[in-house]
Amino acid sequence: MAARLGYQNAKTETGYEQMEALLVFLALVVLAIPVTLVVLVIGQSGLRRRLEDAEREIKALRRGSVAAQTNVTPSTASQPVAPKPPAADPELAPAIPRDSGPTPEPRAQARTAPPPIVEASSPPPRAPSPIAQALSNLGPWLQQNWFYAVSAASLALAGIFLVQYGMENGLLPPRARVAAALAFGAALIGVGEFIRRRFGDDAGSATAYLPSVFSGAGIVTLFGAILSARMLYDLIGGGAAMGGMVIVALIAIVLGWMHGPLLVAVGVIGAYGAPVVLGNSNSDPSPLFGYFAVVAVLGLGVDTIRRWGWISALTLFLAYLMGLAIVLDGRGATAWTGQLYFATLALLAILIPARSFSPDHAGPPAMLGVLGRMTIGAKARGVHWPSFPTLMAFSSVAASCVILLILWKPGEAEIWLSVGLLTVLSVVLIGWSGRAPALQDAALLPALTLLLSIFAQAENRRISYTRFTQTYSENVEAVFPWVITILVGIGVAISFVAIWRSLRGGQFGVIWAVVAAVYAPAMAIVLEASWHPAKVIGPYPWALHAAALAVLMALFAERFARHDGAARLRVSFAVMSALSCMAFAFVIVLSSVALTVALAVTVVAAAALDRQWSLPPLGWFIAVGVVTLGYRLVVDPGLQYGAEGPLGGVLLAYGGTLVAFVAALWLLRPLARRTAQVMLDSAAWSTAGLLVSLLLLRWIESAVGRSYVDTHWSLGLNAAIWLGLALAQVQRTEGRTSALLDKIRWGLAGVFSVIGVSALAIALSDQNPLLIGGETSFVFGPVLVNTLAAAYALPALVLLLGAWRLVRIDHRLRVVLAAAGAALLAFWGFAVIRHFWQGGDEMRLTFGISQPEQYTYTIVLLIVGAGLFYQSLARRSAVIRKAGLVVIGLAVAKVFMIDISDLDGLTRVFSLLVLGLSLAALAWLNRWAQDRDRTAEGGTTGPPDLPAQE
Fold first, then answer.
1. In a 10 Å sphere around its CB, with 0-12 CB exposed, 13-18 middle and 19+ buried, how is residue 908 labelled?
2. CA-CA distance, 721 to 175, in Å (whole number)?
3. pLDDT tens digit string along 798-847?
4. Mapping DSSP to helix (H, G, I), strand (E, B) and coil, where does residue 262 land?
5. For the chain, what is the radius of gyration of the CA atoms?
């Protein structure tokens, strides 16, 4: 057994020896690849040089021949010239005959020469995008020179594996391993420099790119040696390691300037890949962020001098990729150092290409440029892509913001670090945007990300949010939580920087004025929507924050007014923000009714400020205020509060809003504010309709003593409300249909109309007192002032009022509204007459029609027809005259078809008598009207006198 075990151990040792021999052989093969490549290239350099010399001589001979053919006088320009051998080359002379015959005369040749052809000049090619240009340069180069990249990777891996192999096998002490790696890297750089100085490194030389291959591999080896000395063997401290990497980076910058982009690319890729190869350490990987930052400075620093473009893109891509890999590893203090690293990358991507601490990126901003380039006809208009540094800066800032937002933060300190970094980025980028117009949109990214981060803390129940919400849950005497105040203060700080940027002027001064007026209130709104501070610190302390923001916006308005003079656009933004902050404070502390009244007061205040200081943009605030108040009156607390709430509160909410709309409309009367005036006018009419309808509903229910839901009067009042709201939306469109806002208003009008017409249809069918019986069909109230008026007369008046006031809409729609209103009003008149004769409990038609009721219908038809006929004479309206004749015709038809058969006795006699006298009088008036019209057409002024009585 012992012999067998000894045999197995010997066999195992033999296997290990064979494996080591195989590894050594593979290492020699890997090292032999670049060496063999160098030998072959240098060995063939002489042959290549001779071939190039021969090609140059052939090209020189061809150029000399062409010059001899074209060097003629203008008079003989079109004459063919026989080819002549060059004087310096006698060997070519026998190939050309000595006597080539007579030469044609120049004039004859000139006469037969074809006219010259003028080629149309082609338009200059359009420049491709910076990213497409970089990819188009990199792809073909890799296709032709991929073996250089493989050679550089082999040499770099050889240096790194040298350290790793020594560590795994214990061949050398740690210091000797690092020293061997440093020596190997220095040797590779030396070989590269020797080849560059001896044979050259330009694209036309035989040793092109070889110096970059060796020097790049040497740079990677030096980075790997320093990294292993710090993280594998702990031979040097963090400061020494950083100093060494900085020195290597400076060496790489100098070599990159001399060798070209290949060396830098090899160095950058190898430097970022070295920690992956040396990934045996279990220590904290946080120091790698500093190492990666130095490599990023290396790549961006070389590229900012040589302007290759794709080197910077490659550097940033690998920097973010490797940084994310470390963060996802999750060991050590990566949450702290990772956030600092990604924020630093965004700053490096801006500052290093600009070569200044104050960037000056020119051209269009990234988002505006890309969107403008994607529009139809952008190439024809000459719209250019944003510059490559602009795109790179925007992409880097966007990537850093996204990572800072989604990066896992285990504790409250890491969360506040993220908030602080986003704040710093916002302030710094807004300050830089003054001299760099192309960074305007990039400066907004950190500020917007900060708002999302605050919202996400509440949505994800992070520790910062939970500690705030639980402040007083265990100890009611706990210290006041200042986290909300601090966050609002951060928003105020960013607004201050934005107003400073706006006051500096420039193309985007107005945009930054909007940011200054909006950002701090937006921070407060985000906190209100997600953190609900009033539930923790109380409504009044939280409302004080909003009031302080209103004061701040008033100060902004004063600064803009002092700076802008007569130009009031930026002042208007600040004033609107101040009014909005006041409204926000009202929302926090006031009840529903008081809030509605307070919002109405802000609308009046906006109108007064506009009239006093001429601030046209305040019309936007008035429009938003009208919509908000309409929402509160109809939805929240809405119609239910109007029908069931206290009468005093209803009068204050609806009546106060109505008074505010009328007052604002009166204040804007001398100003040209068409949109605001139309909004206020329609809102005033619709609010008045709401108030009247709700008061009628409450009065009817109080008189009846019960509250009914589905009755003819409740349905009619609802129809009046929704039809009034629909007509208000139609009035605001002013007949337009092209704009998006107009389409939305037409859509809302359609929805409101469907609701109103549906309610009215039910009131005319299922709940019609003429068709059904029961308690809900009973008509309450005296004649004319009863539930029939609420059910049918009020909706009819709404439709007729709309037909009268909507003068800017299509005439056909007005006719439809007028016809529907008139028909509904006629139905109401019929129901009123029946209620007069039958009473409220016998309204159904099944009870029959009495003779007095039948006779009353005839009299009413004649009176209405006569009234219309008179109005046609007074207004000289042919349409009204035709309407009157139609009504009179209906009366005549009723008398002869219904009254003669249904009436009896003196009632029938009086019916025919009244009809005859009425028709005679109307015929006499019609004849007089015709004579008047003929006299007016003949030129006589004024109508003729009525016929004198004998």
1. middle
2. 90
3. 999 999 988 888 889 999 999 999 999 999 998 998 888 888 888 888 88
4. helix
5. 46
